Amino acid sequence: MKPTRTGVRTVSEPDCGESHASDGTTGEATGESGGTPVEAEDVDGALAALDGAGLAGYNYAYLDEHTKREVRRAVLKAIAIPGHQVPFASRPMPLARGWGTGGIQTTLSLLGPEDTLKVIDQGSDESVNAANIRRLAERTADVETTTDTTAADVIQTRHRIPEEVLDRDQVLVLQVPVTDPLRKVDPSDAANRRRHAHANYGKMWVHLYENVVEYGEIQVASRYPVTVAGRYLMDPSPIPRWDVPKLNDADNLFLFAAGREARIYAVPPHTDVEPLAFDDRPFQVERFDAPCEACGATDTYRTAVETDEGDRLVVCNDTSFCLKRREDAGLAKDHHLDRDGVDWGPGTPDADDTDQEPATNGGDRT
Amino acid sequence: MRALGLDPVTDTRRAFAGLRTAMARPGTVQRLPAPADHAVLAALVDHKVCLSTPDQRLADAFSREGRLVAAAPPEADVVHAVGTPDWDPTDLNRGRLVEPSEGATAVYRVGTLADGTGDGTRDANSTDGAKTTVRVRGPGVPGERTATVGLPADHLRDLSRVGADYPRGIDAVFAMEDRVLALPRSVTMEVT
Q1: Backbone dihedral region of A296: left (phi > 0), alpha (psi from -120 to 50 degrees) or beta?
Q2: Of A88, A328, A351, B135, whose CB count within 10 A is highest?
Q3: Which helix (DSSP H) or strand (DSSP E) does residue A158 occupy?
Q4: For residue A129, what are the CA distances in angstroms to A162, A240, A262, A319, B73?
Q5: Which keywords annotate this record (chain B) (predicted)?
Q6: CA torsion sign, A206 to A208 to A209 to A210?
């Protein structure tokens, strides 16, 4: 039995026949699921025996063309209505929903053979999920992969925006677990869609006000609600507050994709993205007491990691940039760009001092 | 879409890449496989959306692949026009307030297309003399851009009127030869 494209094509739809024509292999891909029996002693041997042959029957970039069209239509509408959650027919993918299926569908719909892909998971290139997504794209879409932010055309990410400034030709695809910022104040999707329709965000303001009453400042660790282009309230996915200012007036396109919730939304370049805050309780990014213990950086988002020896280190969350900083401690976040005045989140070395103010003010007050 | 001389995988991906950049940077000319309007439609249209087109060859090509659901312009999701259309932008589907993404995408084949940098030229074969310059502001535009498209000023004024209903609205794509320029509903345009 030949390997099949199990679960990817939905059989009820008329077959356009085009994806078959292009890869020249799908015509014979028929039969029930179950894969090819492999005789091998162990798992490694089985995988080695399948190498290459397992891709027969798959279209370029894994998804069939109908799925790509569906995703692409949603992406275009999402760009045309910044911050609005556009529904799309999310397909089952070869990993559980909630593990980046929306991001993978979007990434694979974007990629072409001349593109270079980077995948990060919480700032790390080496997590199992990131490595597997990268390998899927490498094998099916024939793309180069990289860990260098500045070398990538498409970056798929879970819960971080890289520290290095993204340029105009790059696209950042963020995996989104929860699409609607209003869900934390009302679990009803129907009611929340009506609120978005009328830009009625009073309930979120009350939620933030209650936060201030309780803690003296807005305590939202991640998924900080933002207003996009003065219209839609948007969940920027669970990125830390540190990354939220990077969405504002960026040079690159941000795509947010949720496979489980079947929604895609976008922030185009040069779009106003404003975190919700009060005049006397401004938006604040995270505060860190000590520099990165690996590279000495004071202008990056840091998290605690445990080493193999059991020590607890506070280091940069963006591992790729941290490695570069260990080589060259003075490396600017916009070192690869030939223009000045690039503003990218808090503490960009050549940013105005005023960018630091919210954090300082907030620190004094509390 | 081999009937249109387009590779169904690589050309539609390239068309989408150009269209994506055009939408994200309204008022800039982007390159994609020629003819650009056919490439855009091949990248967008299948049996899940309704198409209105005056181009019979195009309709036949979609129909042969089971991808054509024809509709009149007011009902269509994707509306194709060659030159100045006989419908009005205010006739098209703008979507609902709850789901504005249902609003139509209008794909115009025009005889003149240029952005502020002068990328793009007049199609020598075009007999349609209309030419209108619009100033564009909004998401995707740092400051302001200007764009020149081969449509009458009245049509573009109607298009900007449709955008007053934001987030309901229609998204316009202008195509000439291997170039596209997009004016999504999020931008405000001023006809000069």
Answers
A1: left
A2: A88
A3: strand A154-158
A4: 17, 20, 20, 16, 45
A5: Lyase
A6: positive
Q: How does DSSP classify residue A119? A: E
The tens place of each residue's pLDDT in chain B, 192 residues long, gives 788 899 999 999 999 999 999 999 999 999 999 899 999 999 999 999 999 999 999 999 999 999 999 999 999 999 999 999 999 999 999 999 999 999 999 999 999 999 986 666 665 555 557 889 999 999 999 999 999 999 999 999 999 999 888 999 999 999 999 999 999 999 999 998
A151 and A204 together in one domain? yes
Note whether B49 contacts A73, CB cutoff 8 Å: yes
Q: Which residues of A fall within a CB distance of 8 Å from B93?
A: none
In a 3-state reduction of DSSP, which class is residue A262?
Answer: coil
CB within 8 Å of B169: residues ≥ 6 apart: B94, B95, B100, B103, B162, B163, B185
A215 with A354, same domain? Answer: no
pLDDT in tens, A9-37: 333 433 333 333 334 344 344 444 556 66
Residue B188, H or E segment: strand B188-191
Check whether residue A68 and residue A206 sit in a common domain: yes
What is the SS3 assignment for A9-26?
CCCCCCCCCHHHHHHCCH
- In chain A, how many domains are there? 3
Query: Could you tell me if A70 lies within 8 Å of chain B, comparing CB atoms?
Result: yes
Query: Domain count of chain B?
Result: 1
CA distances from A142 to A60, A111, A173, A181 (A): 8, 9, 19, 36
- Residue A59 is classified by DSSP as B
- Measured in angstroms, the CA of B172 and the nearest CA of chain A are apart by 10
CATH of the domain at B158: 3.40.50.11310
A261 & A360 share domain: no
- Residue in chain A nearest B170 by alpha carbon: A80
Cα–Cα distance measured from residue A241 to residue A264, given in angstroms and rounded to the nearest whole number: 21
Segments of A177-252 assigned E as strands: 226-228, 232-234
Three-class SS state of A312: strand
The residues facing A86 across adjacent strands are A264
Across the interface, do B10 and A22 touch by the CB < 8 Å criterion? yes
Instruction: State the nearest Cα–Cα gap between A264 and chain B, in angstroms.
Output: 11
Question: What is the pTM assigned to this prediction?
Answer: 0.87
Look up A16 and say whether it is catalytic.
no
Same domain assignment for residues A261 and A337: no
Domain extent at residue A42: 1-59
Query: What is the C-alpha separation between B42 and A68, in angstroms, rounded?
Result: 12
Looking at chain A, which residue has its C-alpha nearest residue B141? Answer: A270
Contact B16, B40 (CB under 8 A): no
Residue of B nearest to A251 (CA): B140
Q: Mind giving me the DSSP string for B131-161?
A: -EEEEEESTT-SS-EEEEESS-HHHHHHHHH
